[in-house]
Specification:
Strand content: 25-35%
Number of strands: 12
Helix content: 25-40%
Number of helices: 6
């Protein structure tokens, strides 16, 4: 079995058992953790979803709250009492007796001439839930689901890393049969030419972006080509990488 070494960490076996090895490597990739290859939006969506669920659950928790009824009677208290200025709390204490015992609580609001005091009658305790917590929780749940879906549905936003060795790729159109296996394995590198007019010939493959995949992925796509139409060379030395040159 012949081995070809292409820089550090770049080794590919060229033999008839390549398809089995590729299948085994695919199984290893699928066995990785689900979240290992996902976009950070997935993690963000999960966090927002958990917070939203907690807020929504809190919104349904009943809380005891005092129930007051506003009285129609109002009391005016001047700002200056006995030549001294008074605060809103002091004005409430002054106005309290003028409600004839009907006001359990007095709230005073300052005006141009003094304080206007409103009486509140205590009716008892009631159990209420937080509508704002429900609204914010529901909105965060929707946002969390959207973030999780976008992160799961689309590829992670990663910066292309520079390969240790640059390669040169070309397609031999004389032997290309438009099998499209290269397009399926590396769609950002290979595509089929668009036909502008009806033709009996199948559209041939061509290179869209040589840096659209890693060297390993490109080499695998080239090795899976049934006719060996994809030619890969070392851009610096010009050495043929695939398909291997015949040896004498």
């Amino acid at each position: 079995m012949r081995k070809f070494y292409f820089g550090p960490g770049f080794r590919v076996k060229l033999s008839s058992s390549n398809s089995d090895e590729f299948a085994n490597s695919d199984k290893k990739d699928e066995s990785r953790s689900f979240f290992q290859k996902k976009d950070p939006l997935v993690y963000l969506g999960i966090i927002i979803l958990i917070i939203g669920l907690a807020l929504l659950a809190y919104g349904f928790v009943p809380v005891r709250q005092a129930n007051y009824q506003l009285l129609s009677q109002t009391v005016s208290v001047p700002l200056n009492q006995s030549q001294t200025f008074i605060s809103a709390d002091q004005a409430a204490q002054i106005a309290q007796p003028q409600f004839n015992g009907n006001a359990s609580n007095v709230v005073c609001v300052s005006s141009s001439v003094g304080y206007t005091c409103y009486g509140q009658q205590f009716l008892g305790w009631e159990m209420v839930t937080s509508n704002s917590a429900k609204e914010y929780g529901g909105a965060m749940i929707v946002l969390g689901f959207a973030s999780f879906y976008l992160g799961y549905r689309y590829e992670p936003l990663t910066i292309k890393k520079r390969e240790l060795h640059s390669i040169r790729i070309r397609v031999d159109e004389d032997i290309c049969i438009a099998n499209a296996v290269c397009v399926n394995l590396a769609p950002k590198v290979f595509q089929l030419k668009k036909q502008t007019s009806p033709s009996l010939l199948a559209p041939l493959a061509y290179v869209v972006d040589p840096s659209g995949a890693t060297n390993d992925e490109i080499l695998i796509a080239a090795q899976m080509c049934p006719t060996g139409a994809i030619i890969i060379e070392d851009a610096e030395t010009g050495e043929r990488i695939h398909p291997p040159l015949p040896t004498s």
